[in-house]
Please model this.
Amino acid sequence: MSGSSPRVTVLLPVRNGEPYLRQAVESVLAQTLADFELVVVDDASTDGTAATLTSFRDSRLRVLRNEQHLGLVPSLNLGLREARGEYVARLDHDDWCLPTRLERQAGLLDADTRVALVGSWMDLAEAGGRRVGRLTATIADYPEFVFQSLIGRVLIGHPSAMYRRAPVLELGAYDEATLGAEDKDLWRRLVLARWDARIVQEPLVAYRIHERQSSQLRAAEHADVDARSHERFLATLSPQAPAHVLRLLLADDPALWDECRDAGASEAALEGLELLLAGTRERLKLGPPEAARLERLVSGRLRSVARRGWRGGTVAYWQASPSLAARGRRGLAPSDGILAAAPYTAAYATAPVLRAVWVAERRLAEGVARSRGVRRLRGPAQRSRLARMLYSRLTGNP
Model:
């Protein structure tokens, strides 16, 4: 560590994390970049967390202990205030870093002063540590970062994030009213402040899936918090635009078809979209090339929404979806427009058959769901993401 100001602060909040905490700490202490501090905020744990932390003899580890349970986001903000590094790398107590994580992400931040946020690919692991998959994504430029924020997609998982500490503190750190979406809410505010983001295209973090995760136990609540944050973001870009409908449209939420029950409602949503894009160009000071790239990305999204709209088999789709498809082809050359229309046309033409298949599958799923063996999966399905995936595939119910 160079003097009293390390290059990176690794921020790790923990509450009763004894089963996995040791591996997380060891993975940080084994980093190839040695100029860091590890700040662990122990949120008044009642298990062996404190003993695990005191067992380490490494001067780079600092432990802050809350005298009473404050919660995740207040603990994060406490750690941010105490952090001394120029960059802050997040890690959860049940995940772990690969050895080159800090080196690779800090190098990217060093190379481009316009970038404030860097993520990475993440390996997915079961509770015991066995790898079961990988999350991959890319962000090529600022318009793509804006676009991903507009559609509500999360490409930078919180445990894989490294960001510049100063701008985050200037933005007020984490919003303590956004538990469950505190990371996505912060990324949106970075977009509004004209900061860019990138993703290291290699796995640098292993994300553990287990039954005790807050994201598993409070998924519905977290989704609601995220939706409100998303709509605030859209409203900030364009106060006149209908934020709720635009969130459903851009996120490709099935509830969109309840809002757009006819062509008139669809046209109103598209008018709101134009207001949003105009507000985005002005608020974020997008130059012509950036604005053109954002337009292409949004148009592609509309084509995708229109193609998938048949899934619910609603009358609203038949009346509203053509408007979305037409708007999605705007600006394309004639030959490109024909190619872009082909998947939508095929989906539209085959929708009656697919609708019949969908209804048959639902009826079969309802019968399967009533079977004794599948009923036994319901309890575990509510507690485990992997079990939920199995239950969903068997019954057709999310």
Notes: Residues 220-351 form one domain. Strands lie at 8-14, 36-42, 61-65, 87-90, 96-97, 115-125, 131-135, 162-164, 196-208. Residues 334-369 form the longest helix (36 residues). The CA atoms of residues 79 and 390 lie 38 Å apart.
